[in-house]
Each structure stands twice: as structure tokens, then as C-alpha cells.
Design brief:
The chain is mostly beta strands. 4% of the residues lie in helices and 59% in strands. The protein has 2 helices and 24 strands. The strands form 2 sheets. It has a 22-stranded antiparallel β-barrel. A two-stranded parallel sheet has the order 8-9. The longest helix is centred in the N-terminal third of the chain and has 16 residues, at 9-24. The radius of gyration is 25 Å and the shape is globular. The two termini are 39 Å apart.
Amino acid sequence: MQGIVRGTARPCVAALLAAVLALTAPQPALAARFRIDTRTGALAYPVIGRDGFVVLDERVIQSRVLLMVDDILADDPDVPDPALQPDVAVGLSLRWFANPGVTSAATEPSNTGFVPNAQDMGLEVLWAWVEATDLLGGRLDARLGRIVHEGPLGWRSDDGARVRFEPFPWLGLSAVGGFENVRGLRLSNSPFAPDGVDRWNGEGEGAGRYRLHGPAEHRPTVGAMLDGLAGPVGYAAAYRRTWRTVDGGISEELFGAELFADFDVLSAFGSTRVDLVTGLVADASAELSAKFDRGRHRVEARYEYFRPTFDAESVFWVFAADPFHEVTLRYRFPLAGALRGEAWASARHVEDAGGDVAVESLAGPFTDLGGGLGLSLATPDFRASLRWKAIVGSTTSLAGADLTVDVPLGDRWTLFAVGSGWHYEDLLRDGAYGVGGAGRAGAAVTIYEGIRLEAEAQVAHDTREGTTFAVFTWLDLGVAL
């Protein structure tokens, strides 16, 4: 049985907790604000391998603890705006879990029943940082530790430091550097490994069955972002590079940008992300939205482009990829009373990547055409939505529908249910098809302010995986001092 924290992690975690306790210990003349949240849950579900058989029967009991402390520094009574006074804040989020469904054979690399990254017990540091805010008259913030940050390149977890300087509302500069938070770092086993690279350590007969893993690394990474807001127009541009520690080569280099504008009637958004290692545009999108009759009618036009790209070490580069362009026109409109509707049409062009099946046009440059309808009803006592979608063409055949119902019972109880059904066929890959459906039902109750209990059951059926079940329960506790 594995220990709660691997031996190399214990000194780091102990030092981190000691630093947090020292910073957050009550001191004279301080009015620090404390926030403590916990979420405890029980989850049960099967994990199905590529051969269609259950490899793990997960029964997870887990607890997440969040601690936030700010206003640690005393306010200066001579400063008119307290929001511009320097402050120190501390944030910590831990996740502990036990999984009785994981057998000892699954965690032992020498056993043929070994499953990479399976753990019967563990402690993860989701994030932990110390931050200095509102330096230089509110223009400078700095954060140190395990940080989670986001931007045009998506969200990211790194062990390092982030500094943000904002001299004007229309100009902000952020810089981040440290080590990529991937599996094998001393503090925890992280879920943020690069796509297609399974990072774990182990030698033995069982581990030898999995030959496409990567060794644990402390991969250096740096990034920067420019962003700002000038009236109704905003922008952001970001760059990131990550190196391999094995040979010093580049494992990831990305550039991304976003631009948005929001006026009374019109709003627009555009974004792009470029993989500089391959010189390929990974994705791009543009959207224009117009509102009429005080927002009761809304028309949206959207363009999307997507090309699968991965970490330079990813095994997925050897598989065929089918980049596509898609345009969608959507109209949202009122019906009777609180009932609203929406209708949309879409057209897709899939680029011929030289696979086994040639891509043919269906109408003009488009290989696939589709559309859908939706109805939604929202009242103080009842919320529901019904959606239907279909797309057909030379590359795919897809149809699906879902019904969502959410019923609040007074101020404390909420009942919810979701049902869906679908059929799909990937015409570019022989035999890739499926028919299935899924259902969810649950309830939530607020026992007292800051105390909430939630339970949910799920069932799904698919021609590839058969029938699967899952049960979830959560208990949320929150205290603010």
C-alpha cells in the first residue's frame, strides 16, 4: 500500500505547511481575513481499458481543503483608498484521497496487473502560493509557489513565480517562470502532464507492458503576456516556451492572441493560437453577435478552425489528424411567456490529410452540413432546456438530443436531471461508430449557510464500452472569519 505522500514529498509538504502556518498565525494589530472551504466526496465508477474490460473498479473517498488568507498587513489610516495599500495573501489547496477499489497489484510495477499512475491513497498539492499585491501604488503584484494561471494559451499549472505590472488600464504585462507541473515532481503526482505523454516511474514485468511513457522531468518554462482594456475594447497576447531537461531541446513553444469588443448592440471576439515548434496554427475563432429589441432577439455568426497539436514529445503526433473549418449561424428568439427558442445552421470543411479515405465535398467547399433546434424555459420554480443537433456529410454522420431539468424547491433544495441520446459514425475511419444514451439525476440541499450536501447518479450506454455506472456524493463546508 502506497503512503499518503511519497517519501521525497514529505519534507517539501511539511516545509510548505510550516510556512503557511507561520504567515497566518494571529498577530497583534492585524485584521487578516480567513476563508476555509472543504469538499468531501465519495465517487464510484469503473475504468474500462482499450480491450473493453474493466481494469479498475474505482471507489474514491476524497477531501479537498482550501485555505485563503488576505489583509495580512495592517492598513495605513493616512491612505485614503485601502484597495491601493500593499498587502500579503496566502493560498493553499490540498486534495487527499483513498481508493479501496485499487488493488495492490495495480500499484506494483512488477505485477502483470500493474496500471500506470494508479494510487490507492495520496495527497496532492493542487496549488499553494504566497502573494504580494498592490505594490507601487496598486500597479505591481507578485506570486510565488505552485500557481495556476490562464490566458490566450489556456490555463496552466507551474511551480515558480508570476509577476504582473499594470501601469495603465490599457497596458498590463505579466511574466511567469519556473518548472512545468508534470507527473513526478516532488510535491505531488500532478494531472497536468503534456497531452500524450504519460509520465510515471517504474520497472518490472507489469511496467514493461506500457512502453510509451516518459520519465519524470522538471521541465523549465517561461512565459509572458500583454493585455489591456480601453473602453469597450480589450486584448491579450501571450507567449510560452518549455524545454526538455533530458537534452535541452524545446518541447513546447506557443503564441496566442485574443481581441474582443462589446458595444450596446454589437459584440465581437477573435482568438488564435500558433504552435511555433511546427509552425502550424493550432486553432482560431471569430464571432460577431448582434442584439435587437433590448436583447430579446440575438443573431450570432461564428467561425472556428482547429488542428490537433501536441507537446513535441507526444506520441499522438504519429496518428492521423483532420484539421477542419466550421462556420455557424445562430438565432435566439423569444416565444410565449418565459419560453425561448434558438435555431442554428453549420457548415464544415475538413481538410484532406491524406488518410485512408478521401475527403469529398458535399456542397461547394463544405464536406459536412448540419443544424439544430433548442427550447428553454426559465421561471423562478422551474428551468428546463431541450436541444437537438444533426450533421451529415462525407466525413461524419451525427445526431443527438438532450433534455435538462432543474427544479429548485424553496431556498434549500434543488433537484436536477439530464437525459441524452446520440448516434455517430466517423466515415474517415472504418468501424468508428456508436449508438448510445446517458442519464443523470441528483439532488442538492443547503443544510445551513456554508454547509451543502449533493448526490448524483449516472448511467451511460455506448456500443463501444457497454453500460457504465457512476455514483457521486459531496459535502461542502465553508467558513469565513
